[in-house]
Prior knowledge:
Elements: E1 3-7, H1 14-26, E2 33-37, H2 39-42, H3 54-62, H4 71-77, H5 83-94, H6 99-104, E3 108-115, E4 121-126, H7 131-140, E5 150-152, E6 155-159, H8 168-173, E7 178-182, H9 197-203, H10 208-233, E8 238-240, H11 255-280
Parallel strand pairs: 1-2, 1-7, 2-3, 7-8
Antiparallel strand pairs: 3-4, 3-6, 5-6
Amino acid sequence: MKKGLVLEGGAMRGMFTAGVLDVFMENNMDFDGCTGVSAGAAFGCNIKSKQIGRVIRYNTKYCKDKRYCSFHSLLTTGDIYGADFCYNKLPFELDIFDTETFKTSPVEFFVTATDIETGKAVYHKCTDGLDEDLLWFRASASMPLVSRTVEINDLKLLDGGIADSVPIKFIESKGYDRNVVVLTQPYDFVKEPNPMLPLIKLKYRKHKGIIDAVKNRHNIYNETTAYIKDKENKGELFVIRPPESLNIKSVCHDKNELLRVYNIGRREAEKHLPALKEYLK
C-alpha cells in the first residue's frame, strides 16, 4: 500500500489546506507521496519539510507587505505575488524553509504546472527545495494575466490548475493506491467557464495551447470532481473539503480572514481524523 496526498490550489483558499496539513503533522499522519497544485504546492511543500505553522505564520505576518502580494508588485515586477520576495527573501531570510529536512524526507513531492505551448499538465518531482524546485513552486502558482510566464529549461509554464486542478489520476499513475484529497471548494461546487477568457486570448494569442486549456478547464475540473466523488462513495478515496464556500479573495491583506479560513481547515481535519486514521490503516 502506498499512501498519497493530493492538494488542490486556489490562491488564498490554500489557507484551508494549510490548516488541514498542520493537523496532519501534529498527529503524525504520514504519507509516502504528495502532489500539489498552485497554492497546494507552494503551501503543501511544508509537509515534506515538517514545518508546522509556517504557512499561517508568514502569511499573517506579511499579508500587508506590498513586496509579498499587491498590485504594486504586479505593476513593478509583473507578478502579483512578488517572485523575489516569495521564492528568495521569504524562504531564505525571513521565515526559513527547512531544505535539509525537505531533502532527507522520504516523502515524494510532485508539483503540477501547465505548459503554455501545449496546454498540457507537466509534473516535476522536487528533491531538495532549492533553486529549481522553487522555480517549479512558482510556476505552479503563477496565475495567468497577473503573473509572468516561468521558463524552466525548454518549458514555458503557468498555473498548474489550468490543466490539472486536482491531479488524482497522476498520483494513481505513480502507484499510489490509498489516497487522500484535500479540496478547497465545497461538495456541490461546479466550475463555470472562465469569464476572463477574452483577455487571456488577447494576452496569450501566440500560445494556442494555454487558450484551449483555459477554455476547457471547467469541463475537466467538473469531470475530475465527479471522478473523485465516485471513488469517495465507493470508499476508495478519502476527501477533506470545506463545508461551504470559503469566500476569500485571491489577494487577501486581512490576517483575520486568513486565520478564519485556516481554522476552518483545522476543524475539518480534526473532525475527520478518526475516520482518516482508520482509512489509512
